[in-house]
Amino acid sequence: MKKITACLFDLDGVLVDTAKYHFLAWKELADELGIEFTETHNELLKGVSRMDSLDIILNLGKLDLPQEKKNELAEKKNRVYLEYILKMGEDEILPGVKDFLTDLRNRNIGVALGSASKNAQLILERLNIEQLFDAIIDGTKVSKAKPDPEVFLKGAEALDVKPDECIVFEDAIAGLEAALNAGMRCVGVGDPETLHRANLVIPGFAGFHPADLLQRI
Ligand code: B16
Ligand code: MG
Fold it and tell me: Most exposed of 71, 169, 171, 213 (fewest Cβ within 10 Å)?
C-alpha cells in the first residue's frame, strides 16, 4: 500500500452540485438559440470547459458560429450562471465534505482543488471552505482540459508532493482519466458503472472518512 500525502478534489459534482445551475444557464441560452437541450444532454458537459460545453450545445443544434459570437454567448451564459452562484450558501456543500476535508488537514494530508471551472474561487468563498485548501488549481490556471493531467499535476506541484502519493476525487470520466494520466489513484464519486476505472467508487462523503480511505485504496 502506497502512502497518501495529498488529496485533490474536483469541484462540481464532488464538493457541490453546481451542475444544476450550469444546466439552467445553458438551457436559457439553448432556448434562445432554438436548440433542444435536456438534462441528459447536460451529462455531456460535466467536467468539460465552458467553451467546449458551448461547442457541444451548438453541435446539438447543428449551428456553426464565428469565434467572436461564441465568446459572446459563453459570456452571456456565465452571467446567468453567476446569478445562481451568488445566491449559494454554506448549506449547499455536499453532505460529509466539510468533515472529510477537516479530518484530512488534522492528519497533515495536503488538500488541493483541481477544477475546470473559472468560477471555482468564488464558489469556494460562497461555501466558506476556501480556508480548508492548501492549493487551488482551477480553470484560470490551466491551459489543457481534462483528461489532460495538467490540473492535477499542477496541484501536486503546488503541494510539493509526488503524483503517486496523491488521491484524486472525481465525478466525471474526463476527470478520472486526467487523474490516471497523472499517475495518481482515483476515488470516483457517483455511479460505479460509469466510474468503473476508478480505484474505489463511493456514493458521496456522508459516512466516509479518511481512515476508510487509508484502508480501502
Ligand atoms: P466554468 P469541475 C467543471 O467543473 C464543470 O463540471 C463543467 O460542467 C463546467 O463547464 C466547467 O467546470 C467550467 O466551468 O464555466 O465555471 O468555468 O467539475 O472540473 O469542477
Ligand atoms: Mg466534476
Answer: 71
Q: Is the pLDDT of residue 92 over 90?
A: yes
Question: Is the pLDDT higher at 217 or at 123?
Answer: 123
Tell me the mean pLDDT in the region 173-181: 96
Q: Which atom of ligand 1 is nearest to the CA of 171?
A: 18
Percent above pLDDT 70 for the chain: 100
Cβ neighbours for 20, distance < 8 A, ≥ 6 positions apart: none
Catalytic residues: 10, 12
Break the chain into its structural domains and give their ranges: 6-17+91-216, 19-85
Q: What are phi and psi of 29, to 5 degrees?
A: -70, -45
Pocket test for ligand 1, best of 8, 9, 11, 12 (most atoms within 8 A of CB): 12
Report the pocket of ligand 1 as residue ranges, CB < 6 Å.
10-13, 22, 45-50, 53, 78, 115-119, 139, 172
What is the pLDDT at residue 2?
80
- Can you give the pLDDT at residue 43? 87
19-85 architecture in CATH? Orthogonal Bundle (1.10)
d(CA 184, CA 156): 10
Fold of 6-17+91-216: Rossmann fold (3.40.50)
